[in-house]
Amino acid sequence: MAEKKGKKKKGGIIGFFRDFTYGMATHGMARHALKTRSSMEHLFILITMGDMLGIPILPPYYSLRLLPHVVPQITTWKRRMLREKDFVESMY
Amino acid sequence: MSLVQIFDKYPDRRYLMFGGKGGLGKTTFSAATAYYLAQKGKRVLVFSVDPQASLSDIFERDIFGRGNIEIMPNLFACEVDADKRIKDYQEEIRQKIITMYGMKKIPEEIESYIQASSAEPAMEESAIFDAVVDIVVKGDFDYYIYDLVPLGHALYYLSMASIYDAWLEKITGLREQMREYDKAIATMKREEETEEDQIYNELLYIKERIGQSSKIMTDKKKTAFFFVLTPEEMTIIDTEKAAGLFAKYDVPLAGYVVNRVINRELLNQNIPVYLQNRIAMQAKALEMIDEKFGNTVLSRVPEFDSEIKGLQTIKKLAEEMFEEKL
Q: What does the alpha-carbon distance between residue B319 and residue B282 come to, in Å, rounded to a whole number?
């Protein structure tokens, strides 16, 4: 705890203002960007792994190559795709 | 022009393919050409990816799924086991997932996806052509003779390849866009450089593989595609249609080889009407072939009185095909 405080002090007043301006100006933008980014991720999985939901698009031989990389996202992606009434609308 | 002239004139054409309707002699001509080139001191690999491949039969050796087998000096044959290849590939993906995430077992929905993938219609073609890329990329032979799967498959794959290519173009673009977002977010949050996008790299790899596999069939410098046909009207018409389709996909057509021509000198002997009629029918068809394909007909191979099997008969056929004593 003490160490943490020490570190915080090192940032001093400038650090505080820097974080403050980040919070004011950039945080909203970053959040928005993250949201868009995750929509894109889901769109991407949809067009590569679409046949999991019955939409075959990519040749399966090659979509298998991508499978390992998206394993952690599959569950949230499926949940989202099934939840959205119109997932295309939610993309942007 | 003759086959020999074609080989002399275009030494760069190292990927040879015989195509045509089933049962007309694609495998026979593949084997005979391999034999001829091997006799000329070239290292030749003749390979097949057809699950009903008959290279094993024609060479009278069981070579299915065993890699490159030496049939005689300079002549190697290979029959790819597409099923096994798909299974091995799926297992590789499983192992990758397990090691990437330190899992004990593949999650159920992922497992069922992997299993379902092998039932997809395009799976086999893709696996087959991917195997071809593996074989050809090694490049340790002077000639590769591809005992082609039936025409339909080849055309299907070529048309798939062009669609996939356009599709991959788009998807790589999307991935690049995502990458831009990652970078922007990292800057905004003042984070370290983002890590390399492995999916992007995989996409580039896939693109390259698909490009290579269709290039093997469409490379004008290195590929020669021969059509096999017999002197029968129906076959001629079908072949003409197929040739048109292949031209559409830029497959470089080297010429036509006619198989099973009955020796016309038999007419001087006392032969049954049945045979006389067949010879007359063939004469008409041969005229039609000359009319349609002209000097792109490279060889006329006679009908043999025995099945082409084993190196002895392959040699005989090669001598007829290349009009040269071997």
A: 22
Is B171 in Cβ contact with A61 (below 8 Å)?
Answer: no
pTM over 0.90: no
CA A63 to chain centre: 21
Say how many domains are in chain A: 1
Indicate yes or no: CB of B202 within 8 angstroms of CB of A69: yes
- Of B121, B143, B177, the residue that ends a domain is B121
Closest partner residue to B110 (CB to CB) among A34, A36, A74 is A74
Q: Is the ipTM of this complex over 0.85?
A: no
HSE-up of residue B68 (Cα within 13 Å, Cβ side) = 18
pLDDT digits (tens, 9 = 90+) for B199-216: 999 999 998 988 888 888
* Surface of A (56-85) touching B: CB under 8 A: 56-72, 74-75, 78
CB distance B180 to B124 below 8 Å: no
Dihedral of the CA atoms B318, B322, B324, B325 (nearest 10)? -10
Rounded to whole angstroms, the Cα distance separating B12 from B239 reads 26
In a domain, B289, yes or no: yes
